[in-house]
Amino acid sequence: MNCGSSSVKFLFYDMDFETTLAKGMVERIGGAEALVEFTDFRQTIDKTLPNKPDHEVAIREVINYLTDPASGPIKRIDDIEGVGHRVVHGGEAYQSSVLIDENVIQVIRELIGIAPLHNPANLTGIEVALKLLPKTRQVAVFDTAFHQTMPPEAYIYALPYTFYEKYKVRRYGFHGTSHYYISRRIVEATGRDLNRTRTISAHLGNGCSICAIHNGKSVDTSMGFTPLDGLVMGTRSGDVDPGIISFLIERGEMSPDPAAPTFIGTILNKKAGLQGVSGISNDVREIQENMARGNERAALAFNVTARRLKKYIAAYAAVMGGVDFLVFTGGIGENSALMRRSATQGLEFMGLMLDEIRNNAAKGEARISTDSSPGQIWVLPSKEELVIARETKRLIQSQM
Question: Does residue 175 lie within any of the structural domains?
């Protein structure tokens, strides 16, 4: 289950076979009408929920769908053996997934100050699910947990150390379940030893992050204290000279006031990135279409994004002393052959040699480097929901 501020998304698994029995979402929660779309892959249900429904109404709708006598994949609510919740921020408290208890709930609540956009909604989902499924064991899977193996030199910012001591200001990293899955799947696909690999995982979607994974452990990642740091994203700036902020505040172009239309957070999170540079869209598909028509701003936005990505790839190879696998995942990573080509062009010197034919033809899991390339380049769809389901099963079975 993945609860956002105005949405609930779910996948329902039979973990004996790791098959998906149903999936769906409820969107526009809190609005005049919420939109519902559920499917068991035989039939799809589309409808609306009136009267400004809240998360409890939405999750109850999910449970009713799963246990519907006529069409549900299960017949009794007790057949739901576990619920895995995506939780964005676990801070320094959790290095792995955990069974949810009152202490876990309290920690998630305490971290709202660090993750005000995500943890409140994640917590709401947990509390509602516990109310509606009181006998069902529930698990929190944290986006930040995988990155807790980073060394201090990777996560400490060069700020007065007291900010870390007082407020835990440090690099946390996100997309951890995606990077974790990629690091395990690539060794399965190639027959390599996890403990003898150097993998760079590039998760490229509307939000983008890249991770250096040495012997199966995260040793560096581009997102930082918040998901704003690092790569250029759909509407997020990524790395920015901090001096620019004070410069623009002095000129009235930015404001520290959250209620102001020029609020710093709004501009950097929602008006920057591909959208900000191109003035067209945050969608790489639209950017590429406009590039093909000769739009210079679209080309500039694309090239800024690809150049930043290339710099991070090379930097993380340096951190690990080389690279065995470079893996692209996420909507852009899986579908934009042009982005993959642009980000790897010129990296032949470090042993990454793209095969143009394979790159252009890639669908699903595919190796896109040449046979002679010392470092392999791959496209792998990430399965974050499956990671959450596996972690939930593992923790439930550990208590049996």
Answer: no
DSSP state of 2: E
Q: Which two tokens stand for residue 280?
A: 């067209």
Angle made by CA atoms 271, 109, 130, in degrees to the nearest 5:
110
234 and 300 part of one domain = yes
Nearest alpha carbon to residue 209 among 201, 198, 217: 201
Catalytic residue check, 143 = yes
Average pLDDT of the segment spanning 182-208: 97
Structure tokens at 321: 């002393």
**Which pTM value belongs to this model?**
0.94
Return phi, psi of residue 93, to 5°: -75, -30
Distance CA 298, CA 378 (A): 26
Amino acid at 228: L
Nearest partner of 15 among 400, 395, 399, 312, judged by Cα: 395
**Which of 203, 187, 204 has its CA nearest to residue 195?**
187
Residue 399, pLDDT above cutoff 90: no
| Three state DSSP letters for 186-206 | HHHHHCCCHHHCEEEEEEECC
CATH number where 236 lies? 3.30.420.40
Q: Which of 143, 220, 229, 324 is catalytic?
A: 143
Tokens of 34: 């919420």
- The lowest-confidence range among 43-52, 133-142, 152-161 is 43-52
Q: Do residues 245 and 343 both lie within one domain? A: yes
Asked whether residue 251 is assigned to any structural domain, the reply reads yes
DSSP secondary-structure letter at 195? G
Q: Where are the beta strands (DSSP E) in 215-344?
A: 217-221, 325-329
List, for residues 74-115, the tens digit of each pLDDT value.
989 999 999 999 999 999 999 999 999 999 999 999 999 888
